[in-house]
């Protein structure tokens, strides 16, 4: 077995394999990312634009000569010219599908009658200004521009800010710019990493503070997002990509291996790929496919890194144990390639997104299907959900009582006012009924 061969491990009903447990629990956060993020955020809070530029030069690839953070109209026009027609067509198709899914997910304002003639309800109002982080370290994720801001566009947010790192000549990838324009970005800044999160969270002279930051990122972005929570609203922990494939002997090993590699190739080295199967024969065939297919990939090196420390092939005694293991992992992406895949998928309760059956590779979720590919990672799919259009609206409760509703509830208000020693609370109800 080579160093880069993913290990085949047995997951049994009795003793749990330590290697599997380590795999499930290993945090994706780079050692030291938290500490660096703390220092950089503090500097940005104090020194604004000058600190943002300093770190863009230090940590992004931005050149010394880059002094302007905002993407200009000329740069946008140049990007639109540079992008090929095939990509434009694909991006428009993806944008249409993402927008259709977002429209279908919009909640309607609603009301219900209160018992004595009034009503209760909720209304949904777009946020005013949001910021999306578009990763640009290991790969230019143009699809992420669509998978974030399109939802904000459908929600009706008027100010759509995007931050993404500049390259070594101070430019942003034209495909990212084209996709951002399609998704309605109103301001785009050439800044990445911790400094992008700090600028959007605290605001600088150039980059106005946003109400909410969304979007994925590598270990540094993820650490920075955790630290600014509370100064700004956030979507979730959307860190290095993960995939789990739950398969039986009906699955094609070449397909399974391709899907495991699709997330390993993201390239930060912190990604995770897990096969859970009832068939040891499949696990062995997948291991051979992983090695063969890796040779043909452009990103062999980062993939090999993930295969070495972020990929395991777990053999389970039966499907129930497989489902249990997948739910414990709570992966960002969960593929089910088994007989009766729909019924198996019903039992998966912890995952960012579930891809059901042999015709649904995870990559359709990344680029084309419709739901946002911004999804929780690192086990947080057990309690966070993926990005939706409702992330870009505030939900406001509405309460409209009639006199008889107040009469009916006054004794409840009085009782709580007494117990909580808050007389004025009680009085504000009873005073109305005395007059
Ligand atoms: N969960 C999701 O929904 C989702 C969606 C898309 C992508 N992803 C993941 O997002 C990640 C993108 O990561 P990335 O690294 O390519 O892009 P990134 O833009 O998050 O990271 C690159 C930036 O990190 C900063 N950085 C790098 N080294 C640093 C250091 N030593 N100190 C301080 N800052 C440093 C720099 O500012 C650089 O521009 C991938 O792991 C991908 O799998 C996740
Ligand atoms: N797999 C990523 C989410 O984890 C999304 C993505 C963008 N581009 C390619 N893939
Ligand atoms: Zn992907």
UniProtKB/TrEMBL annotation:
Catalytic activity from the UniProt record: L-histidinol + 2 NAD(+) + H2O = L-histidine + 2 NADH + 3 H(+)
GO molecular function, one term: zinc ion binding
UniProt xrefs under CDD domains: Histidinol_dh
Enzyme class, UniProt record, top EC level: oxidoreductase
Active site, UniProt feature: 332 (proton acceptor), 333 (proton acceptor)
E.C. number(s) listed in UniProt: 1.1.1.23
Protein's pathway: Amino-acid biosynthesis; L-histidine biosynthesis; L-histidine from 5-phospho-alpha-D-ribose 1-diphosphate: step 9/9
GO cellular component, one term: cytosol
Required co-factors: Zn(2+)
Keyword check for Isomerase: no
Keyword Amino-acid biosynthesis: yes
GO BP, sorted A to Z: L-histidine biosynthetic process
Binding residues for substrate: 241, 263, 266, 333, 366, 420, 425
Residues that coordinate or bind Zn(2+): 263, 266, 366, 425
Family, as annotated: Belongs to the histidinol dehydrogenase family.
Function: Catalyzes the sequential NAD-dependent oxidations of L-histidinol to L-histidinaldehyde and then to L-histidine.
Name of this protein: Histidinol dehydrogenase
UniProt organism field: Tichowtungia aerotolerans
